[in-house]
Amino acid sequence: MQPRKILVVVMDGLGDRAVKELHWKTPLQSANRPNLNWFAEHGATGIIDIIGPGVRPGSDTSHLAILGYDPYQVYTGRGPFEAAGTGLVGERGDVAFRCNFATVDQNMVVVDRRAGRIKEPDTTMLVESLSGMSVDGVEIVVKEATEHRAVLLLRGKGLSAKVSDVDPHTETKIHEAQALEHEAKKTAKVVNHFVQRSYELLKDHPVNQRRRREGKPPANILLPRGAGVFPDIQPFEERYRMTGACVAGVSLIKGICRVCGLDVIEVEGATGGLDTDMVAKAKAAIRLLDTYDFVLMNVKAADVASHDGDADLKVKVIERLDEMAGIIRSDMPEGTVVAFLADHCTPIEVKDHSGDPVPLLIYCQGMVRDANASYDEASCAHGGLGRLRGKDVLPILIDKAGRSEKFGA
Ligand SMILES: [Zn+2]
What we know:
Layout: E1 6-11, H1 27-30, H2 34-42, E2 44-49, H3 59-66, H4 71-74, H5 78-85, E3 95-104, E4 110-112, H6 122-128, E5 133-135, E6 138-144, E7 149-155, H7 185-202, H8 206-213, E8 221-229, H9 236-240, E9 244-247, H10 251-259, E10 263-264, H11 278-288, E11 294-299, H12 301-307, H13 311-331, E12 337-341, E13 358-363, H14 377-380, E14 386-389, H15 390-400
Parallel strand pairs: 1-11, 1-12, 2-14, 9-10, 9-11
Antiparallel strand pairs: 2-13, 3-4, 3-7, 3-8, 5-6, 6-7, 12-13
Helix pairs in contact: 2-13, 3-10, 3-15, 5-10, 11-13, 12-13
């Protein structure tokens, strides 16, 4: 059999619980979804504990599992993946932090943790003034991220991620980074030095002088948090002998995929918000199947509606996701192995991720159909794929695609 292409469609935060205002149905059960149900009818379904039963996944750990990695082995904190989301992919051993541009007074008391929600191009100009720094032989790289966020990367000998946050997370005096293990003393010193220098370089920066004139809070300091070391991840292509690409709007998901070695393809109109162009994303993913063996696409919108606790909005988003599934149904190359799943549940009632299992469906030509013809949380629990772990999904897809290796003779 000719090896087939694999398309994984992650509908972020799709899964839910029974919602009172939807007459105790889930948003997915309440939505009109002819295309997802068509795939369910012609394929097989199941449910997945993305990490493990009852474990609440982050979108980062969940995507590592969906890519077939064991998150407990390769996840080293959010910092490195956020850095990679901006395009700053470090090497093994580099330490990365998430940062906020913030406003502090002369006593280093935080006045505004987000510096008036400063964004590009102001942040880009501020970051330029921080480039090329090094402390104690440690190279320091800063890059702006979305809105008031930035990432900080340290490269050098003897670094450790076991340092506490400088960001106090409230409007109080900033913290000093503390070494949480003996080997982290140098890193803590470098971080504290960097924070002090950021204040000196930013406080009278022309961008901040202008912001003061406009009555906006100056972004006069960078506050690092969430240190993590760049993990030693076996690249996707080497691990699975497949080329891979990713289409996503959210920076963190792009970062996960980049660190795993997937090519991240930018698509115009593909954002991480409710306004994302799902049609453009699906069409781009389908085009990528011409050149790549594996494509992962993430659509964040259902998760955004869930975090807002808006059940009706989530139903509407799911109906748009179904239209997107219709494009995949009509346009995907013949023989494609396609999986639809969520990376975690984000129940409307909780407004955050939960540890509930998520619905899975797999479709390809010639597969054994199960008795379930509906894509929703309850129906998929009766599906022929049973109950799986997130990291079990990719091996199944690889086998359906005729790309698995025989174990034994
Ligand atoms: Zn997510």
